Amino acid sequence: MKKRWLLLSALTLGACTSYQVPDSPNFPANSRWVIMPMINHSNTPMAAEKAEQILSAQLYAKGINARIYPASEVKDLASILDRNAKRRNAQAWLANQNVDYVISGSVEEWHYKSGLDGEPAVGITLEVQSARSKATHWRATGTRSGWGRESVSGTGQIVIEELLDGLNIEQP
After folding, report:
1. Using CA atoms, how far apart are residues 112 and 146, in angstroms rounded to an integer?
2. CB proximity list for 112: less than 8 A, separation 6 or greater
3. Signal peptide location in the record (predicted)?
4. I need a labelling partner for 110 at 20 to 30 A (CA). Which of 3, 75, 117, 162 fits?
């Protein structure tokens, strides 16, 4: 009976997370990285920007001092409503930068589930490309549902940390 309970508990807890994280090639720690705008597929405004900030901190903890694309000057309503304006501005900025790798991705889910407990749910995909050749070197995705007292940002931090564990960084 005890083994059944343990197996049931493991299956229940395992259903709360899903990660597809392949090992990456080795990236030199002294290479130059830029975080480009993430795409927000969630229904939560500013979810991509929140994920970008967490990504920046997590990369720094791994020894990568990545720069984030500069904020765009928003001067009219059309610019605010144009979802691609930020990406176009960031791409124009990137064209003039001396960068080795670009990391970007998307936020598929970033919210609290409705219901009695309101657990946080986060889904993120990350991708590393060569800035010069545009070749994709690594791509990973992960989702996680937290517990009722966890925050969405805390759950997002866990997902991003798990994804970045697949990056192999060569320290000098």
Report:
1. 9
2. 118, 119, 120, 121, 152
3. 1-20
4. 75
Give 15-40 pLDDT, tens digit per residue.
489 999 999 999 998 999 999 999 99
**CA–CA separation, 148 vs 20, rounded Å?**
25
Cβ neighbour number for residue 102 with a 10 Å cutoff: 23
Burial of 31 (0-12, 13-18, 19+ CB in 10 A): middle
Main-chain phi, psi angles of 56, to 5 degrees: -60, -45
Of all helices (H) and strands (E), which one includes residue 63? none
Q: How far is residue 20's CA from residue 10's CA, in Å, rounded to a whole number?
A: 19
Residue given tokens 């000098």 in the structure block: 172
The CATH number of the structural domain formed by 18-170 is 3.40.50.10610
Q: Name the range with the highest mean pLDDT among 11-15, 57-61, 110-114.
A: 57-61
